[in-house]
Amino acid sequence: MDRKRVPGPELTVPPLVEYALDQKRWSPQEECRHDANRQPEDLRPIYLKTGLISQASGSAYIELEKTKIACGVYGPRPIKKSGYGFSGTGTLNCEFKFATFACVKRRNHIRDPQERELSMILTQALTPAVRLELLPKSAIDVYITVLECDGLSSCFAAAITAASVALAHAGIEMIDLVAACSASYVIMDRTLSSAVPPPSTTSDSAPAAVSLRPPTIIMDADLEEEKFEEGSIMVAYMPSLNEVTHVLQNGKVDRSIVSQSVEHCIEACNKIYAVMRHALVESIDEKQTR
Amino acid sequence: MASTSISVSAAESPAFSFSASTFQKLHPVEFFRKFISQGVRPDGRLLEGFRPTTVHKNVVSTANGSAMVRIGGTTVICGVKAEVAEPKMDSPNQGYLVPNVELSPMCSSSFRPGPPSEQAQAVSEAINRVLKESKVLDLTDLCIEEGKAVWALWADVSCVSYDGNIYDAALLSVMTALSDVRIRKPTYNEGIIKVSGAEILDDENSFTLNLARTPLSATFSLFDSSMALLADANAAEEAICQGEISVTLDEKGQICALSKVGAASSSQTLLRQCIATARTRTDELRSIIRSQ
Lengths: 290, 292
Prior knowledge:
The complex is a heterodimer of chains A (290) and B (292).
Chain A: E1 12-13, E2 16-18, E3 46-50, E4 58-64, E5 67-78, E6 91-98, H1 113-126, E7 138-148, H2 152-169, E8 179-186, H3 191-195, H4 205-212, E9 216-219, H5 223-226, E10 229-238, E11 243-250, H6 255-289
Helix pairs in contact in A: 1-2, 2-6
Chain B: H1 2-12, H2 20-26, H3 28-37, E1 53-57, E2 65-71, E3 74-85, E4 96-102, H4 118-133, E5 143-145, E6 149-161, H5 166-180, E7 182-184, E8 186-189, E9 192-196, E10 206-208, E11 216-223, E12 228-231, H6 235-240, E13 243-249, E14 255-262, H7 268-291
Parallel strand pairs in B: 4-6
Antiparallel strand pairs in B: 1-2, 2-3, 3-6, 5-6, 7-10, 8-9, 11-12, 11-13, 13-14
């Protein structure tokens, strides 16, 4: 029981959604993406802006159509927690949080295990780029709030991108920016596999039929597309050093497809890098005119 | 004597040649007093001036209703989510309306991670009281099936950027988000609540909330013993002010809530002045909401 907030009912559930039979809903069978104007390799347009949070050392806001993320960086500041002792290098703390209204189902105020895991991955993806050896005894805190989430892995990739721009905006020394991009594996034409529900008698032939049709790699999938995915991959990459800082792959998929999707992601990261650089240059221009 | 006085002034003169920003850091109260004695504030506002305010409705599509409010450097987003809950035993046909304000460590360095700070609790509770006591929403409107299921409206305010006056911003965002709420009409069948998944929502398949009134507020800070009244203080001003007066009014100008907190004392005339200024300010806010 949470005593520090206005209490509500113990348990609430979202209502069941019932779709009319004649209602047209997107599925991968149509051979096009949820947003029909996008090709499989197309990203959503990115809006990236720095300096949204006036009190933070550095901040960034990123928007990928519906996905909206705000990120604030504080520090470097002395480590306040006792018991940490002396540390020759600085520490990077990342906290990733969904706003309660960000997803389809309401999220709790208290951080859940998924948010804790994503916070840890975020730290791992960003740490290689930050020159922490220059900041002994101090901590950098990166706080990320997802205001709206349209696709989990793309939202997470956007968070890494925004966090690294916010770190740069805070004037923290880095060896490179970290751009991140996600891709999903979706079998676009399901006419074979979905028409026949998992057969119990022909169990030998069914998986073979599925494996004949390789999944399509679609970049920057949104929530509707994620519902149909076989798996997904997220790559965090330092574009000017040509180094990968983090790869996260979920789901069973062929090895060749994984290496192909990593290449696709790196290509996309280079595009994102241009947007990040533009946002940072813009922030310097704003500072000079002020 | 003459020689000593010269040497003192010579020793002191470099100490007084600070830049303005150094002076502000060393003597924030003195710095502000210098401005306020001239009737202006460091950010260029007059004492009774409010910061530019913008309101945007329907900014988060995953929420049933949402609003983003910016008052100067303060940015808050309120998202209202409607979920199904069991009603209380003693009020079987009443739903829930639960406002909560989250001051995350992202929005300012003065907030720490962990459970909500005292300030966040105070603001949440103040908004809850206004919504409840001035009967903004008839909770029986949220009934789905008496004694079985009701709507629970979670009105969560997430602060993105903090620069003072969170109460005005949070209340404005909650009221705007509530006016933006659209809930799909539910059907109840043997304990299962279903809503239609139609893509376009209209009055046929969904409903909006019937708000009895829209309380909005104006907050003033009391600076020092001189009882100078600062409207809509920012974070730096809040830190040096001793007291705060919040006036919450509905559209007819009736007072929904009034609070004066802090150690500074105030007079009756000051309070009347606050109410009069709050009237014009809340009218201005209402026209901002309407123009959106």
